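Reopening this ticket.

The earlier resolution said the output was attached, but the attachment link was broken on my side. Pasting everything inline this time so it's all in one place.
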Amino acid sequence: EAARVAGLAEQIERLQTDLNDHQTRLAAATTRLAEMPDPTAARDRLVEDRAELGRRRTRLAELEATQDRLTREAESRTRRRADIASESTAWAGRLDAARRQLELLVQREAETTEERDRLAARPAEIATERAALLDRLQEAEAARQQDADRLAAAETSVAEADRALKAVEAEHGTAREERVRCEGTLQQAEHDIQELTNRIRERLDAAPDETLAIGGLEPGDELPGKEQIANRLERLVRERDTMGPVNLMAEQEAAELEGQITGMQAEKDDLVQAIARLRQGIGSLNREGRERLMVAFETVNKHFQELFVKLFGGGRAHLALVMPPPPPPPPGTPEGQEGAAAAATAPEPEQSHRRDDPLEAGLEVYASPPGKKLQNLSLLSGGEQALTALSLIFAVFLTNPAPICVLDEVDAPLDDANVDRFCVLLDHISGTTGTRFIVVTHHRLTMARMDRLYGVTMAERGISQLVSVDLRQAERIKAMATA
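Inline output:
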């Protein structure tokens, strides 16, 4: 209570001090109020001053309007004076031009008067010249008539010369044609002589001037008649035909044919041996191909079954080799005539071997997702077909892994759950084989599961920029920051 009393005493002292200050300020304000003039007179003066100010503002507005009007009038007068000065200059120029034009007209009038005086005597001169020209015209007409007579005579001479020329040309053409015919006859005679000479040389092996000696005639003897020569020629031809043709090259041709037969026989033996070796090599390659194919098929089938179960979270699947059906027998053969039933009951050995050959077999995919029966790949839904196809692709890849694998939009037909399974499979294969996968995708879940991202962005219109993000490094930085 004593402390409270002491505090209240201090508060009372402060309040008393404040009261004294306020009283002092009140007294000073009262004194200033008393010293101030009467506000009514100040208000009256203020009203009068405002009225005077309004009058002065009105006067100022009138003076400004008058000044603007005078300024506009001065500018208008200035422009008008400039226009008058330019018009005066123009009129002065026109006056000078008019003076020059007047001087030119006076000069032209003088020239015209002089020309008129000069031409006043021209009609008489023209009449004199006309009479002289008429005389010259009559003389020229007479000369023209004489020239026309000479031209007609010359034309008549030219026509006669043309007729004579045509006659000469016709005779020349006839002579040229006759010459051509004579040259053709001469060439034909020379050709016939040459053919006769060739025939004589071919049949008698002698020159034409030696034929008389071959025929037993002397140069001065008389030639036998054509009928006698024809009979003798016919008799000689019959005798030659009776003898038959004689082949003087028969022995040489026989030796050549025997050599050809021997060579062809040797080539045939070589071909038979080569065919046997080729068939043996083909059989060996086929056996090795079948063995390798079956080993690869078993390996791919095993990987396919494992990957299918991993992707679908259960179920089963397998691959099967489908043999092609036997080809139908060709029409016209006994098998084709007997019918398809007989051909099916008794196939040929080669066809039976081909139906059992895995090299010619097809591949069928059978899959059974969880909760469904085993069926063909074509009977599954779109997403199931995509996952099954991915299982088969990665099964073939695991048979012979590569260090780098590029996948382009393989997750496009998959939903979010299947995309997650696909990413888990990629992590498993990457960790098992050490393969680096480069995935081209637009799916956000796939991008979120990758280690690095590379993309193209357009920061500005028409300017592309490559952006790369290391998600692994970002995760490590986040883990370090959280720790």
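Reporter confirms the inline version is readable. Confidence is low (pLDDT under 50) at residues 338-353. The radius of gyration is 68 Å.
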